[in-house]
Amino acid sequence: MKYVVIRDDDTCLFTKPEMLELLYQPLLEAGKSVGLSVVPAIGGGQPAGVLNGPFWEQFRLDYSPCLPPHRRAEAQIFPLTPDCEIVRYLRSRPGYEIVQHGYNHITINGVREGMLKETQLITEKIETSRTILKECFGQTSDFFVVPWDDLSAETLRILRCYFKGISLHRLGKRHVSWPRKAKAVARRFLNDQNRTPYLRDGDFLLLEYPGPILSMFNDFGMMKTQIVDFLATHDVLVLVSHYWEYFWDWDEPNQEFLSAWHDIVAYLLDRPDVEIVSFSSLYNHLYS
Ligand SMILES: [Zn+2]
Fold first, then answer.
1. Would you identify the CATH topology of the domain 2-286?
2. 219 CA → ligand 1 middle, Å
3. Strands, E, within 175-244: which ranges?
4. Burial of 172: CB neighbours in 10 Å, binned 0-12, 13-18, 19+
5. What is the whole-number distance in angstroms between the Cα of residue 52 and the centre of ligand 1?
6. What are the structural domain ranges in the chain?
7. So what's the pLDDT on residue 173?
8. pLDDT score recorded for residue 266
9. How far is the CA of 242 from the centre of ligand 1 (A)?
10. Fewer Cβ neighbours under 10 Å: the N or C end of the chain?
11. For the chain, which residues score pLDDT lower than 50?
12. For residue 183, what pLDDT is reported?
């Protein structure tokens, strides 16, 4: 069996329920899980730059695109609250697995929040985030989705105390403990088609994902082919998407992108050798 986790990033106080509903209704109606990577208290006023990849290169945005345009410049923190629209929607709609996506999704003095080294600050941010998630959803998350895909050793050491695993783009030697370092180094010499996209480091699971397949900058006609090719040589796929890219720029849905996505969903649901699972159930499969 091949396991696919759908991971959608950047849900926050500003996410409109209808955006997620439009994307994920077919999966939810089929009884499948969608891993929603939620920012507990997103920060505005974040200047855009090279970290924003093609959004910076192509649009030269002033501020980070994962907030709506009219809120991007506001330099403040926007925590989720138990009675806000998106939290009420998520609580009422079974099928979403809430995973934690950073704390504020910001840089601090130019440092990505995952790269912080001050252990007291990291612990405070994790504790505050967990309090918010507990108040909103009645529980904390077992998995952490790394903003901008990298972590300091200090952050990773603390995350291991709170979470069962992390999801990021590329695993490196610095992400694993000593007994696993040789294995992590050996992976460097394997190309995408030959790398096992996860590593079990004791009871801590590190999951890789292939590049931005579901992207508004990709050729929509090629997305399914890339997924088919990846599944031909892998048994685990974390498929990453950013809901707001389907509505660029926080406006009408891009029908071509949306229908390519729904075609992929139908394909995955139809494949008898593919199971769409949550992060938690993938963890249980990999450790059973
Ligand atoms: Zn993000």
1. TIM Barrel (3.20.20)
2. 22
3. 198-201, 204-208, 236-242
4. middle
5. 10
6. 2-286
7. 83
8. 98
9. 8
10. C
11. none
12. 76
